[in-house]
Amino acid sequence: MRKTIKQVFGEYLDEQKKKLAPRTYEYYDETVYYLEQCLNGYGYNTLGKEDAKKFDENFKKGIEFCDTFEPQILSSSNFFEFLGYYYPKKIACGHDRAKKICGATTALYKWMVKNKYILQEEDGDEIELKESVDYLRESFDEGMEKYG
Q1: Where are the alpha helices (DSSP H) in 43-124?
Q2: In the chain, how many domains are there?
Q3: Which letter does DSSP use for residue 7 in this model?
Q4: Residue 137, pLDDT score
Q5: Residue 36 maps to a domain
Q6: pLDDT level of residue 134 (50, 70, 90 thresholds)
Q7: Residue 62 lies in a domain
Q8: Spatial CA neighbour of 86 closest among 131, 25, 128, 45
């Protein structure tokens, strides 16, 4: 059985808890919490017809997006939406805290790519991880400027 997004996020947090200071870990835990909320609320927008049907069936049973799908369904665009729209617009916090959440989000994204939970492709072309991370940061900065 493959892991769901929620299970992979749990695996990531377990790993981080062992190596991060408690205060730093709090940002990682908060990041995963809000990213999960974002995906559960908006992740279905990027689904194809078959996956949308699966989501609808599970949602009627009370099963959310992160409990339905494997992480391979995610792409960099889900992270861009989180950093560029969801977090700056929906979550009230100071700019310093938001920057730490951005750092924790990019760390999670890199970990998911490294562990092959997310494929680094865009329109069939492999893209560099650094390029994606830079774009994540730019998306966050634009979102904070616009909504923060």
Answers
A1: 49-60, 65-68, 76-81, 87-90, 95-114
A2: 1
A3: H
A4: 84
A5: yes
A6: confident
A7: no
A8: 45
CB-based burial of residue 94 (10 Å sphere; 0-12 exposed, 13-18 middle, 19+ buried)? exposed
Q: Is 118 helix (H, G, I), strand (E, B) or coil?
A: coil
Q: What angle do CA 107, 1, 4 make, to 5 degrees?
A: 35
- What are the φ and ψ backbone dihedral angles of 3, each rounded to 5 degrees? -85, 145
Two tokens at 8? 């992979």
Residue 54: inside a domain = no
Q: Which among 3, 4, 9 has a CA at the least distance from the CA of 105?
A: 9
28-53 confidence digits (pLDDT tens): 999 999 999 999 999 999 899 999 99
In a domain, 46, yes or no: no
Q: What is the pLDDT of residues 49-103, one digit of tens each?
A: 999 999 999 999 999 999 999 999 998 889 989 988 898 888 877 778 888 999 9
Cross-strand pairs, 15: none
Half-sphere exposure in the Cβ direction for 72 (13 Å, CA): 5
Residue range of the domain that includes 102: 5-41+70-147
